[in-house]
Specification:
A 5-stranded mixed β-sheet has the order 2-1-5-3-4, covered by helices on one side. The longest helix has 17 residues. It has 5 helices and 5 strands. The protein folds into 2 domains: 77 residues, Beta-grasp domain (Ubiquitin-like (UB roll), Roll), CATH 3.10.20.30; 71 residues, [2Fe-2S]-binding domain (DNA polymerase, domain 1, Orthogonal Bundle). The chain is of the alpha+beta class and 160 residues long. Helix 2 crosses helix 5. The protein is globular, with a radius of gyration of 16 Å. Strand 1 and strand 2 form a beta hairpin.
């Protein structure tokens, strides 16, 4: 019998408390218990990055993170980025610069990029490549993805 615990965390800016099994993965908790299906299930082994979310502002692979490890933390998914039905500048940049093709890796790419832009507002190409090194895309050559992140960084610089 699997033990359960009460998990209290802030998810996409809202306090939550849910009973979760000790062995429940964060990916499964988000998708099945919270209904946040933007986080994608890819390799189930921490190798592709499709499941990337932010935990306390840092990129984390939800397929190899236990939900219980997020007790008291702030977790953000792709659903947290848009406001009032509008895409964030990073989401918009991926759309405008053709940074996604099939779209399966896109939420993880965007969340890894979001973590980068929060800590490095004006990254160079090498910093972008390094930040996205754990995210695999089977459809693109990454050029458009890097262009999208660079464009979003420039756009954010105009806001402040």
């Amino acid at each position: 019998m699997t033990r359960q615990r009460l998990l209290s965390l802030t998810l996409n800016g809202r306090e939550r408390g849910d009973a979760v099994a000790d062995n429940r993965l964060l990916l499964d908790y988000l998708r099945e218990q919270c209904g946040l299906t933007g986080t994608k299930q890819g390799c189930d082994g921490g190798e592709c990055g499709a499941c990337t979310v932010l935990v306390d502002g840092r990129a984390r692979l939800s397929c190899i993170t236990l939900a219980a490890a997020c007790e008291g933390r702030h977790v953000e998914t792709i659903e947290s980025l848009g406001r009032d039905g509008r895409m964030s500048e990073l989401q918009r940049a991926f759309h405008e610069k053709l940074g996604s093709q099939c779209g399966y890796c896109t939420p993880g790419m965007i969340m890894a990029s979001e973590a980068l832009l929060r800590r490095t507002p004006k990254p160079d190409e090498e910093q972008i490549r390094s930040a996205l090194g754990g995210n695999i895309c089977r459809c693109t050559g990454y050029v458009k993805i890097i262009e999208a992140v660079s464009h979003a960084a420039r756009e954010r610089g105009h806001d402040g």
